[in-house]
């Protein structure tokens, strides 16, 4: 698992301000661990050049007892944010990580 990083948050706040006149909402989705098959269809090569140690949070994902999220969970959030039901949400980092960010 990789801890979520809201690196885009300052960018989102800037774009939120710039696009307000056009009534465009801008948010950032910060997913935590997501179940995926990337290892099954990715070839690893030149791994010696990438020896930067990864730092992972201690403990398990609180809300899911350690289980990663699903791509469908993130897709549901995207659909919600694209809908009128989220008309008052803008410039916000939204953590969808089962509470994993609480461990960092």
Describe the structure.
The chain has one domain (about 10-35, about 55-104): Rossmann fold. The protein has about 100 residues and is of the alpha+beta class. The termini are close together. The protein has 2 helices and 2 strands. The longest helix has 12 residues, at about 70-80. A two-stranded parallel ribbon has the order 1-2.
Which percent band covers the strand fraction? 5-15%
For the record, the CATH architecture stands as: 3-Layer(aba) Sandwich
Helix content: 10-25%
CATH homologous superfamily annotation: NAD(P)-binding Rossmann-like Domain
Average predicted local confidence, pLDDT: 78
The end-to-end distance, rounded to whole angstroms, is 12 Å
The strand count comes to 2
What class would the helix/strand composition place it in? alpha+beta
Give the helices and strands as they follow along the chain.
Answer: HEHE
Broad CATH class? Alpha Beta
Strand order of the largest sheet: 1-2
Labels describing this entry:
single chain; 104 residues; alpha+beta; Rossmann fold; two-stranded parallel ribbon; 2 helices; 2 strands
């Amino acid at each position: 698992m990789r801890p979520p990083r809201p690196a885009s948050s300052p960018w989102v706040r800037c774009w939120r301000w710039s696009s307000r006149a056009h009534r465009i909402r801008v948010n950032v989705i910060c997913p935590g661990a997501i179940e995926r098959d990337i290892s099954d269809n990715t070839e690893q090569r030149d791994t010696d050049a990438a020896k930067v140690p990864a730092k992972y949070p201690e403990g398990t994902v609180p809300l899911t007892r350690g289980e990663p999220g699903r791509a469908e969970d993130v897709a549901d959030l995207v659909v919600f944010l694209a809908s009128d039901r989220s008309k008052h949400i803008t410039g916000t980092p939204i953590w969808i990580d089962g509470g994993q960010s609480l461990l960092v």
